[in-house]
Amino acid sequence: SSVAIPLACNGQVLGSFNIYSAELRSFESEEVELLQELANDIAYGVLALRTRDGKARAEAKLQVREQEFRTLVEHAPNSIARYDTQCRRIYVNPRAQALFGLPIEEILGKTPLELSFIDTPDFMQAILTVLKSGQESEVEFPFHTPQGEACWGHARLQPEFDPFRSEERRVGKE
Fold first, then answer.
1. Are 140 and 154 in contact (CB under 8 A)?
2. In which element (H, E) is residue 161 found?
3. pLDDT single digits (tens) 36-91
4. What is the band of 174 on the pLDDT scale with cuts at 50, 70, 90?
């Protein structure tokens, strides 16, 4: 005789738990119930291991993508900055840091009005407009380099949305 019990968890069949005996009618109903409980426990364990492995693979892929993105941004020839909802810098790439000529600690957490070489408050207003509207924008502005050279800049302001669709927005500038 034999008994075959599906290994199923959350409606997903993962396999079959089969037991064979040389004796006829060797599986009583109580034994089959115990074997069913055992099969359920095995199925739950298999599903937990598969879920854990899938999560580990997804995290590894995410780390690779983050590193690829970071490499791209860190080596970009353009100045890139991110601002929080209060217009404080939360990130600048090495190119932006070089334009400021300051340690990163002195740049982050400051608004364009608190620390900037931009000669107009229009830039900060453009950031606020993008935060409020959720629409990207471009702005041109005069600025002076740390060496005092007068220049013109062009920025593309792109809103960032929380991946969970909350109302908090950030702005990335290139």
1. yes
2. strand 150-161
3. 999 999 999 998 998 899 999 999 999 999 999 899 999 999 989 999 888 899 99
4. very low
Could you tell me if 138 and 156 are in contact, meaning their C-beta atoms sit under 8 angstroms apart?
Answer: yes
Give the chain's length: 174
Asked if residue 9 lies in contact with residue 44, where contact means CB atoms within 8 angstroms, the answer is: yes
% of the chain at pLDDT higher than 90: 39
Amino acid present at 52: R
Contact criterion met (CB below 8 Å) for 92 and 73: no
Provide the whole-model pTM.
0.64
Q: State how far the alpha carbon of 54 is from the alpha carbons of 15, 46, 50, in Å.
A: 19, 12, 6
Q: State the sign of the Cα–Cα–Cα–Cα dihedral 145, 124, 135, 81.
A: positive
What pLDDT sits at residue 169? Answer: 54
d(CA 83, CA 96): 13
Alpha carbons within 13 angstroms on the beta-carbon side of residue 160 total 13
CA distances for 12 relative to 5, 35, 41, 55, 56, angstroms: 14, 18, 14, 18, 21
